[in-house]
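pasting for the record
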Amino acid sequence: MGAIADLRSRLVALDHRLTVRLRVPPGPWHLLALLIAHSGDSPLWLVAGGTAYLWGGPPLKDLGVGVLIANIVGAIATGFLKLIFRRRRPGPSFAGLYHDQLDRMSFPSGHATRVGCMVTLLAPLLPEWATATLAAWAVAVAWARVALGVHYLSDVLAGLILGTALGGLSRAAFTG
């Protein structure tokens, strides 16, 4: 085995071990993880962004546009990358979140990409305390996806990095 293949094998094994350690058993932590994970669902944020854009004043319209862009750009990017990487989700049950046919692929995490993109797009529009709160929520959503067994740790880390990059590119493209 070559050095690169050996390194890849070790990283995959580490990813699997850490993923298993972060999972939570049924109980209060599992319920909390479900609530946090679902707080990052795209339909919720599409409705929120659309509502802010359609009925909000100037600052809310900008927030709404940022949320809508984060959802659309994140979905396109993760959908494309999932087709390329075709990495299966770690658990057979999907923690009751998904039907097997809906979204079998896990890399990168769409939720983590979406929330990373939203934090980056919305940060300039928010006070520091709100940006910090939003960033903490993004990390919590990423943790919840691993805790529920629907993603590997590397899926959510890649999603957060991808989302942050997409958010920065989108912000630059839409603000000049």
